[in-house]
Amino acid sequence: MIKQRIARVGEGKSGGSRSIILFRKNERAVYVYGFEKKDLANIKADELEAFRELAQVILGYTNAEIAKRVEDGALFRVEEPEGQ
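Predicted structure:
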C-alpha cells in the first residue's frame, strides 16, 4: 500500500492531494481512495489497517477475478489517454 502525494498547481505536493494505491510490483496498481490534504491531514490507524486488509484481498485476485469485477462495475480500469 502506498500513500502518494499529488501536486496541485501553485501548491506543490505538500499542500496538494493524496491517493491510496494498492500496489504489487510488476503486477498491478489499484487506486482506492483520494483526498485533499486541506480536508484531511492523514488517514486514521483503523483506516490504514482496513486498506491493508483490502490490499490482501484485491491484490490476491486473479486476472479473471479482476475482469469479472470490472464487468460487474465493482472496479473500473483507468487507461492512459491516447497520445500520451
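Summary: The first helix runs from residue 45 to 58.
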